[in-house]
Amino acid sequence: MNENNTSATTNSTSVKTGERFVILGAGESGVGAAYLAQQQGYDVFVSDFGAIADKYKKQLLDWNIRFEEAQHTEAEILKAAEVVKSPGIPDKAPIVKKLREQGVPVISEIEFAGRYTDAKMICITGSNGKTTTTSLTYHILKNAGLNVGLAGNIGNSFAYQVATEKFDHYVLELSSFMLDDMYRFKADIAVLLNITPDHLDRYDYKLENYAASKFRITQNQTAEDYFIYCADDTETIKGMENRSFAAQQLPFSIQKEIQPGAYLENDNIVINTTLAHFTMSIKELALQGKHNIYNSMASGIVAKVLELRNETMRESMGNFKNIEHRLEFVAKISGISFINDSKATNVNSTWYALESMTTDVVLILGGVDKGNDYSMLKDLVKQKVKAIVCLGKDNKRIHDAFEDDVEVIVNTGSAQEAAQVAFHLSEKGDTVLLSPACASFDLFKNYEDRGQQFKDAVKEL
């Protein structure tokens, strides 16, 4: 990182030191952006329409950064030279509409922080698997001795790390919401895992609009950069048809041989880039299940592009421990395995979780339904699920979707009750899987709270 770096400053807009810089949303990314902006000499003001968490309020106070909560004071915000917006704030929010009408640039924390670092950017997006792939990629790079940071949708904010660290590489998990507010930022290595319907309420319920957001990960790339994507993903291939890509393409597939790129041959992952060759048995991978072969291929291609040693890759891909709340093993009680997949907040994520199960399953489903289409789960539920335990306030759509496929569907109102009921419905050799396919806000603060309460409940059985 070099704060005075000329290539970074050519990327900036016309905002000058001392000008008003506003941050909307005082979560991890917003507070990090505020710190970096202050460090760069801007007049910083942070505004959150909700309550600010104590942790972030303390940081803002410690740093003497002005802020407000539970309101947006237009007189303060509309005189901004530039605004960083939290990814959770939609474009249709009144304050964002007014800013855009006045021609004030509204950008993401990633766009802003990218101006102040020379580090190589490895950026990962996709509807499913991006947190796992980001974490695995970071794990491989760190184990190989690279000076690497982890940020985006995961870990400490990118902006705060740019302000306080000097990493040579960053592995960034990017959501479509983040990508929407990125314009000049460039990924040196861009990874697109898959595109399946998610968050369509933010995209006029059009899959092509959501897909266009995902493809923003390739914007500004040059012939020296890399675009890694899944050749088996229908929507990705469809989206590529009418787009051009300057970067070198490295696809991955488990259905066909691909050169250069990655493919499956006799249960071995084979990675062939122009730079090197790598093979590893899928039985040796720490992450099991078809979807995790894809995730491992994507991470493996990144490692080969960076010319990491095969031995280091093999070791890291074999000893990686998955992130909390994503197919996380909790405990084995009376021969019954308990798995916490609370991060599965859409149907596709739950499909991936079920697909990786090798035993009979008691499935804990439910929460805030984002207009879910449960039909894609039907075949897997028939094959693997012996009972469904609903964990949510309104479970009617789950009953309607699966009443013909499983004999037992039970309603519960807490993580503790769900764990107890699932335990009683299971027998030795079964798996109790919390993979809700829904958001958590009806009964919990967030998916982490839901997962933690489930883990606590399991430990009390």
TrEMBL record:
Enzyme class at the top of the EC tree: ligase
Keyword terms of this UniProt record: ATP-binding, Cell cycle, Cell division, Cell shape, Cell wall biogenesis/degradation, Cytoplasm, Ligase, Nucleotide-binding, Peptidoglycan synthesis
Chief localisation class: cytoplasm
Catalytic activity: UDP-N-acetyl-alpha-D-muramoyl-L-alanine + D-glutamate + ATP = UDP-N-acetyl-alpha-D-muramoyl-L-alanyl-D-glutamate + ADP + phosphate + H(+)
EC number in record: 6.3.2.9
InterPro entries linked to this entry: Mur-like_cat_sf, Mur_ligase_C, Mur_ligase_C_dom_sf, Mur_ligase_cen, MurD
Mur ligase C-terminal domain location: 325-438
The UniProt record lists the keyword ATP-binding: yes
Entry's localization field: Cytoplasm
Domain (Mur ligase central): residue spans on this chain: 124-302
Function statement: Cell wall formation. Catalyzes the addition of glutamate to the nucleotide precursor UDP-N-acetylmuramoyl-L-alanine (UMA).
Family the entry assigns: Belongs to the MurCDEF family.
Protein name in UniProt: UDP-N-acetylmuramoylalanine--D-glutamate ligase
Organism listed in the record: Mucilaginibacter gynuensis
Gene that produces this protein: murD
